Amino acid sequence: MAKSAKSSAPKKLRHGILGCGGIANAHAKALLQIPEYDLVAFCDVFRASAERYKAEYGKGQGEVFEDFHQMFEKMDLDVVTICLPPFAHADEVETAAKHGVHIFIEKPIALSVDKAQAMVDTVRKAKLKSQVGFMMRFQDGIERIKELLDAGRGPGVQFVGRYYCNSLHAPWWRMQDKSGGQMVEQIIHQFDLCRYLLGKPKHVFASTANLCHGEVENYTAEDVSGVVVRFQSGAVGVLTGTNCAIPGKWLAPWTFVAKGLMAEQSGGATQITHTDRPSPYVEEIRSEKNGMLAEQLDLLRAIREDGETRTPMLEGLESLRLVLGARDSAESGRPKDL
After folding, report:
1. CA spacing 20 to 30 A to 146: which of 121, 196, 199, 263?
2. φ/ψ of residue 34, rounded to 5
3. What's the CATH code, domain 136-288+319-337?
4. Mean pLDDT, 10 residues at a time, the chain of 338 residues
5. CATH topology of domain 13-128
C-alpha cells in the first residue's frame, strides 16, 4: 500500500538517488550535509555507477539497483532525487507517486509538454511535495529582488540573460532528440528566471543555428541562439546562448530592470541599483550559497511543514512550455503564441 504523503515523517527521511551520473554528484554532496536524510538507495542502469555512489556517498551502506521499479518496491523511501537525462524519463514519477515518495527532479523534467503535464497531474493527485532543479531561483540576489517586488517595487520591465560555454558535453547532449538542444537542456535556467521575475509569457520569437560544430558527428543541437519573449504585462525578456564561447567556462550573467531598480549579476555578485531616488543607491550582494543544498533544504521544509516548495513540478512544466515554444519558433521562423 502506498504511504500517505501527509503521514508523520520519521526522524530521518529515507532518501534514494535515481540516476548516478555527473550532476547527481553535486546533489549527493548536498544531501550528505542534511542530517535529516539517510541516503539508503542508489539506482542507475549502469550498476557500476550506482555501486560507486554507494561506496562514496553511502559509505558502503545502502542498496544498489539497476531498475527503479525494484528500488521503489523494496526500499520504503520517503524522498527521491531524480537526475536522469531528458530522454531517459519514463514512468519514474508515476512509480514514486504510487509509493508515496516525495520528489526532487532535475530540469528539464521532460522533452514534451504532454509528458510534463502528466507528471504534474500525478504529483498533484498523490498530494506529494516536488521540487524542480532550478537552483538559480535560490541565488541571494534573486531572493532580494523578489523581496523588493513583493514589497511593491516594480513592476519588472525587462530581463536579459546569457548562457555561454564551449564543450562537447556527453554524446547524448549533442543530439537534439535526446537532450532537446542547448536551450532546453541548459539555457532553460535563464528562461525560468525570466518567468520567475516577469510573470506569464504571451509569445516568443527565436532564431537558432549550428555554426561551430557542423563537423562533429551526431551534433544536431543548436550552438547559438537568440530569443525574445513578450510577457502579458508588456515586459520583455531577451535570452542568448552559445556553445562556441570560452572552453572550460560556463557563464550565466543576467540583468533585470524594474521600475525603481536595476540588478546585474555576474561572477557570483549581484549589484542592485535603486533608481527610485534622486541619488541612486547601490546594494551589492555577494554570496557563496550552495544552490543545490538550498533547493534540497527547501523541499525538506515543505515536507516537514506540509508547505509548498519554491519550484514545484508545475513550474517545471511552465518553463518547459516556454523553452519548447522558443524551439518551435526557431524551427518555423515565426513567433509562437503561448
Report:
1. 121
2. -110, 100
3. 3.30.360.10
4. 50 95 95 97 97 96 97 98 97 98 98 98 98 96 96 96 97 97 98 98 98 97 98 98 97 97 92 92 91 97 97 98 98 96
5. Rossmann fold (3.40.50)
